[in-house]
Design brief:
Elements: H1 2-8, E1 15-19, E2 27-32, E3 35-40, E4 48-51, E5 59-63, E6 72-78, E7 86-94, E8 99-103, E9 111-117, E10 122-129, E11 132-138
Antiparallel strand pairs: 1-2, 2-3, 3-4, 5-6, 6-7, 7-8, 7-9, 9-10, 10-11
């Protein structure tokens, strides 16, 4: 019921996504232009806003990106250049803090053209090296 009240207070025109990262915890993501407001329903915590340097629309994807059984989220957009690539920022749910933490790929500057390989439990993305585009494999069990 508490989340319903929050949904009612969302800004007009904002895209709202709600989900449960773990049982008894509700999360709400409100995308409004180049900003995403993240609210986790634990205690009386204030929501936080994540700013994106984006000219194109932001999109939200919910998945278990680090393969720990808890739901995480990604905010992604088409690149601002020719619109050829998808650029993702990934936020992993951390139960100790009851919040989301942004993670980086094991190589490159970001998750470009992200693919989630659930069978191998890795994230695949692209980065640019001296010889052009390269494949990046990010594993979370090492961390």
């Amino acid at each position: 019921m508490a989340l319903f009240g929050l949904l009612g207070s969302a800004s007009a025109g904002a895209e709202v996504t709600s989900f449960n990262p773990v049982k008894n915890v509700e999360a709400m993501l409100e995308v409004n232009g180049p900003k995403v407001k993240v609210t986790v329903q634990v205690d009386a915590r204030e929501p936080r806003t994540i700013d994106f340097a984006a000219e194109k629309s932001l999109h939200v994807a919910i998945d278990d990106f680090n393969f720990d059984g808890m739901k995480d989220f990604s905010v992604w957009q088409i690149d601002d250049g020719m619109g050829t690539y998808t650029i993702h920022r990934i936020f992993i749910y951390r139960p100790k803090t009851a919040d989301f933490e942004e993670v980086q790929p094991d190589c490159g500057d970001g998750f470009v053209n992200l693919r989630v390989d659930k069978k191998r439990k890795v994230l695949l993305s692209t980065y640019w090296g001296m010889d052009g585009p390269q494949s990046c494999v990010t594993r979370f069990h090492k961390r």
